[in-house]
């Protein structure tokens, strides 16, 4: 079976099973005979699959769980009473409320101006582009729910802070966001049934908000697993490894200042390999006891030498090349004091014959908006003219970003790219 066919079957099996399966169970359900090594290689395709580690049924056991990932989204400009997208985007033109289960406009006896069909020329083209045109409607909705954050109702962060039945939320029962334990949705609530925060989407307060969106009872019952999948996909997708085109890192975003720090304890391996945001702004209170990496840049290029990671020279030059999807490898040296140079391969993440890696700060989607120097990751696709277009942004074919513009932006993140 061709590679695309294998990827398509794995995606379909995952979506039919609620978006995620433990690795052994996934292999068992596949129709084709796929060896463990072949499946491992297949799952390295970033943008299609994410492998997360979750607590197993046995005490202290951990299971590797495979999740179906996709850059596919609903077009926001197409929503509303006056859809504003002219059809040149790479997102689905589909009514948001129909995806929830029942369009609230039709229920009220009104006409909905948003598309309710997946078989339009635009939607069929988008589904083929993303390689998911073989999925059933329910499987496609599962893929969208756990990948498109716009579809999931927002969780009230103030409810999850402070004391009292509504935490520090000033709106209390009038709050339009969901009042539910965020740690429960991440699979990390250590209090269980004794938690002071709600673990129930079906309580009267939350259910009323969900029913206003037109969510079916079946969808409401699946929300805990959907939020858990979305959380794992968002966090695991921020791992700092080279992703083949059309995935292009935008560099770092300059944000408003933040204060305070977080405990260095109970960090995952991925978090332990992140560059400490507080150290960059010279405010890490843990100093040498911090479990994150202390470095002066929001990225760090290294190679493995006899079991130890060593820095490469001219990291700004390496980062600029890495941000250009047309560059697969460059020649670079270990340090300014050595004459030894070798090839750094971005796709294989190797430096000569040894392993290479790229450390970075946490992804911007995992931190509040006021955090500074988080890493922004943006999807691009190459159009028929060879120009790179950002997924989900409306473009004119005569107004495209050239590779020269992207390269200058990679060299200077503060430079503004032209707006489309």
TrEMBL record:
GO molecular function annotations of the record: NAD+ poly-ADP-ribosyltransferase activity; NAD+-protein mono-ADP-ribosyltransferase activity; zinc ion binding
C3H1-type domain mapped to chain residues: 180-202, 270-297
Alphabetically ordered keywords of this record: Cytoplasm, Metal-binding, Nucleus, Phosphoprotein, Repeat, Zinc, Zinc-finger
Region (Disordered): 234-268
Nucleus in keyword set: yes
Domain WWE: start-end pairs: 285-361, 364-420
UniProt key word Metal-binding: yes
Stored Gene3D superfamilies: 3.30.1370.210, 3.30.720.50, Winged helix-like DNA-binding domain superfamily/Winged helix DNA-binding domain
Biased composition (Polar residues): 259-268
Chain ranges of zinc fingers (C3H1-type): 180-202, 270-297
Signal peptide: none
Record family assignment: Belongs to the ARTD/PARP family.
Protein name as it appears in the record: Poly(ADP-ribose) polymerase family member 12
Originating organism: Rhinopithecus roxellana
């Amino acid at each position: 079976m061709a590679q695309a066919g294998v990827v398509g079957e794995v995606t379909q099996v995952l979506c039919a099973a609620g978006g995620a399966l433990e690795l052994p169970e996934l292999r068992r359900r596949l129709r084709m005979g796929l060896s463990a090594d072949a499946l491992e290689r297949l799952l390295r395709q970033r943008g299609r699959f994410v492998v997360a580690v979750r607590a197993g049924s046995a005490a202290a056991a951990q299971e590797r769980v495979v999740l179906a990932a996709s850059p596919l989204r609903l077009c926001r400009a197409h929503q509303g009473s006056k859809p504003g997208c002219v059809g040149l985007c790479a997102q689905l033109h589909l009514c948001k409320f129909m995806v929830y289960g029942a369009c609230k406009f039709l229920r009220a006896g009104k006409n909905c101006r948003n598309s309710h069909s997946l078989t339009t020329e635009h939607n069929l083209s988008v589904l083929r582009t993303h390689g998911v045109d073989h999925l059933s409607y329910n499987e496609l909705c599962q893929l969208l729910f756990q990948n498109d954050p716009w579809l999931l109702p927002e969780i009230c962060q103030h409810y999850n802070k402070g004391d009292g039945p509504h935490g520090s939320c000033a709106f209390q029962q009038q709050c339009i966001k969901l009042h539910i334990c965020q740690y429960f949705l991440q699979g990390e609530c250590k209090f269980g049934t004794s938690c002071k925060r709600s673990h129930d989407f079906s309580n009267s307060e939350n259910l009323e908000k969900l029913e206003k969106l037109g969510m079916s009872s079946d969808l409401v019952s699946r929300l805990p697993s959907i939020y858990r999948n979305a959380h794992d996909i968002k966090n695991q997708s921020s791992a700092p490894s080279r992703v083949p085109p059309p995935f292009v890192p935008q560099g770092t975003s300059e944000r408003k200042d933040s204060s305070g720090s977080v405990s260095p304890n109970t960090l995952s391996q991925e978090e332990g390999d992140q560059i400490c945001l507080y150290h960059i702004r010279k405010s890490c209170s843990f100093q040498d006891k911090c479990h994150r990496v202390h470095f002066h840049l929001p990225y760090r290029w290294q190679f493995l030498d006899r079991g130890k990671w060593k820095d490469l020279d001219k990291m700004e030059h390496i980062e600029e090349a890495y941000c250009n999807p047309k560059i697969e490898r460059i020649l670079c040296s270990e340090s300014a004091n050595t004459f030894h140079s070798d090839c750094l391969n971005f796709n294989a993440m190797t430096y000569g014959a040894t392993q290479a890696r790229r450390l970075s700060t946490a992804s911007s989607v995992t931190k509040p908006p006021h955090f500074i120097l988080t890493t922004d990751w943006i999807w691009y696709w190459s159009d028929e003219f060879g120009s790179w277009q950002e997924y989900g942004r409306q473009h004119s074919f005569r107004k495209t970003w050239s590779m020269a513009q992207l390269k200058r932006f990679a060299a200077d993140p503060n430079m503004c790219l032209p707006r489309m």
